[in-house]
Design a protein that fits this description.
The protein is mainly α. A two-stranded antiparallel sheet has the order 1-6. α8 runs antiparallel to α9 and α9 packs across α15. The protein is globular and about 60 Å long.
Length: 570
């Protein structure tokens, strides 16, 4: 583990021109979608949800297909986006601020706008399906993209030198250097993406706005219908089905994927307790699987990835710039015109708000920021030691891995009524309950990234610390913390975004016919969504985006540079 104590990270400007452009573009899109949402039908009927036990396999299959479609889109997006940002300085200046903003936009705040605007343009069923997949996609894509980008930023220099010496092209460098080095983090973050996707799938399948019913047939709507009707046997059967599906995916998909990813660790000594999977062993002994992998799988993957690399934004621009510069001028002029129109419309919406509302939003933003910081500190306190245990001990991973996945995949909002009953009787009240619920929505991002970082520590470095007699804090300070730092920063960035999203359901709740709310941006967004106050919804979303952007610019981006410059395996 090389630790180069060179010059400090150069100071970064707090606001870049790209940040301003991206914020105005986001405002333009939100304003245009809000204008469409206003003209949507006032009454929309939803599907009938049957609670018969025989419908559970069908509902589970529908939910799984939505998750699978969103995950495939998120993975393709993450590989292309992360590759472009890591291999082009010009692209990085635009794409990383854009990614900071995209992961900071609260998903549940723009869901009603997306649903209402799509319902104007498309048939209701198709609009709701697209919105559900888009919602799950946004809950899965950002942490995958950050993980892949972080891995590319910390590829050892000797591997880069080898690829240059042998004159690897884009595809060879990607398939033989970049992707193998990043595959461990991608697998663990894929598990996290599915866990987070279940939470937002439940929200998407049960979403309503006033008299507009946007529910979808699936496990989420089944659980919600069972709770509304007080059918406890059906509720428990739905939860058991969800848990069974999660365990099945762990045994048939994620556990074999972890065994396969272990082949790409950078180490000269084999680990003492490598991960095992009965299903992976079964597949590895199958001649039919070997033939399909060699003749079908490899060709499909190589073709798809080669096209993906060729279509990354900076390479596509370089390839076509000399041929048709006029096309980019026309597209740029059209984008600028739409930007100006959308920005003017958004400013018009925001100008409708009085000064007292802006003062309320400022205080609410600071209150939510304090809760996010507290939730992150609490998450760090327990996820780091447990993640290191699971990542460095194969037996602990075998026992605790499925348990962590099941618990992480259970929707935290399902626990909120029980939390309210307990915390409303305590001195902290809803403030304490809000922090706990935000913790439930953010801690898993940290845990899965810490596990990925701990698994990436080479066995020879572990043996070296053991031979040198480094124990306790000495071992953590010399090996564990430097090795975990890049993964820990990625986890903190995505966990911060998860906490901001969770604030919408944590700071405002309706329970037993009574509304409970605390001062915070999440409560403002939830209340504005309920009454259809789109100017206030737009303003609250904008303030949340700006706060997260400033935190990312002043804290996380500096730590990213520190990890890439001083803490890397080489």
């Amino acid at each position: 583990m090389v630790r180069r104590f060179g010059p400090g990270v150069p100071p970064l400007s707090s606001v870049r021109p790209a940040d301003v452009v991206v914020v105005i573009l986001l405002l333009s899109l939100l304003a245009g979608a809000t204008q469409l949402a206003v003209t949507s039908p006032q009454v929309m009927a939803g599907p009938e949800i049957r609670l018969a036990r025989s419908t559970l396999p069908y509902y589970a299959a529908l939910s799984f297909l939505r998750m699978l479609a969103a995950y495939v889109l998120a993975l393709v997006f993450s590989l292309g986006y992360g590759y472009a940002a890591a291999h082009s300085t010009t692209a990085e200046r635009l794409l990383m601020p854009l990614l900071d903003i995209l992961q900071s936009v609260p998903i549940l705040s723009y869901l009603p706008i997306v649903l209402l605007s799509l319902s104007v343009l498309l048939p209701q069923r198709l609009a709701v399906e697209i919105a559900a997949v888009a919602l799950i996609f946004t809950s899965q894509a950002w942490n995958l993209t950050f993980s892949f980008y972080q891995s590319l930023q910390t590829v050892p220099h000797e591997l880069r030198e080898v690829s240059r010496i042998f004159r690897f092209g884009s595809w060879l460098r990607f398939s033989q250097v970049d992707l193998p080095f990043a595959v461990g983090g991608l697998v663990w973050n894929s598990m996290m993406s599915w866990a987070g996707g279940w939470f937002f799938l439940m929200a998407a399948e049960t979403f309503r706005v006033g008299s507009r019913d946007f529910r979808l047939a699936g496990l989420g709507s089944y659980l919600q219908a069972a709770a509304d009707r007080g059918d406890m046997p059906a509720l428990w059967m739905g939860l058991a089905t969800l848990a069974g599906l999660i365990i099945l995916l762990d045994q048939l998909v994620w556990r074999p994927a972890l065994v396969w990813a272990d082949r790409f660790k950078i180490e000269s000594v084999q680990a003492e307790d490598p991960p095992h999977s009965w299903f992976y062993d079964l597949l590895s002994r199958s001649r039919l699987v070997e033939w399909a992998h060699r003749n079908v799988g490899e060709r499909l993957v190589e073709t798809a990835m080669a096209k993906l690399i060729r279509l990354t934004p900076f390479q596509m621009r370089e390839r076509t710039k000399s041929r048709r510069p006029w096309a980019f001028l026309v597209l740029g002029a059209a984008a600028l015109l739409l930007l100006l129109i959308g920005g003017a419309r958004a400013i018009g919406w925001l100008a409708m708000l009085p000064g007292a509302t802006w003062w309320l939003l400022a205080r609410a933003g600071l209150a939510t920021l304090a809760r996010v910081a507290l939730a992150l500190l609490l998450a760090l306190a327990w996820t780091v030691p447990l993640g290191v245990l699971i990542g460095t001990n194969s037996r602990a991973a075998t026992v605790l891995g499925p348990i962590v996945q099941v618990v992480a995949s259970m929707p935290a909002t399902a626990l909120f009524p029980a939390l309210l009953i307990v915390f409303l009787r305590l001195p902290g009240g809803l403030n304490l309950a809000a922090v706990v619920l935000m913790l439930l929505g953010t801690q898993w991002y940290l845990l899965f990234n810490v596990i990925a970082g701990a698994r990436a520590i080479p066995q020879d470095l572990r043996d070296m610390t053991r031979l040198l007699g480094l124990r306790g804090w000495q071992r953590w300070g010399t090996l564990v913390v430097p090795a975990l730092l890049p993964y820990l920063i990625t986890g903190l960035v995505t966990a911060s975004g998860g906490a901001w999203n969770a604030s919408i359901v944590a700071e405002y709740a309706e329970f037993a016919g009574t509304r409970h709310a605390v001062l915070g941006l999440g409560a403002v967004i939830a209340q504005a969504t309920g009454v259809g106050d789109y100017p206030q919804l737009l303003a609250a979303t904008l303030i949340m985006v700006l706060l997260v952007l400033l935190v990312n610019r002043f804290a996380w981006r500096r730590l990213y540079r520190l990890a890439a410059d001083r803490f890397r395996l080489e």
